[in-house]
Amino acid sequence: MNDHMTMPTAAHRLELVGREQLTVSGVEDVERFDETGIVMSTAAGILVVTGEDLHIGKLSLDGGELHVDGRIDSVSYEEGGGERGGFLRRLFG
Questions:
Q1: At 20, which CATH number?
Q2: Is pLDDT at 70 greater than 80 in this prediction?
Q3: Nearest-CA neighbor of 22 among 53, 52, 56, 45?
């Protein structure tokens, strides 16, 4: 069995309050962010958040928690993050 495919044991949770506040636990790394999108590596895979006026209010990689404020339009998981020409490339050019 390939150990590389084993899911980490860190808990992963999303909490969205309205469309203005998002809390994500199980965050391992923030790969990119700006006012229209945040791409992060989580215990469940690559998570992409899009919207407007997005701001990271709190980031604790030691605790694995991220707080986002702004107008959140979508939250989705990206499969196969290394694919050429994938969603992330279209999102961030």
A1: 2.60.40.2000
A2: yes
A3: 56
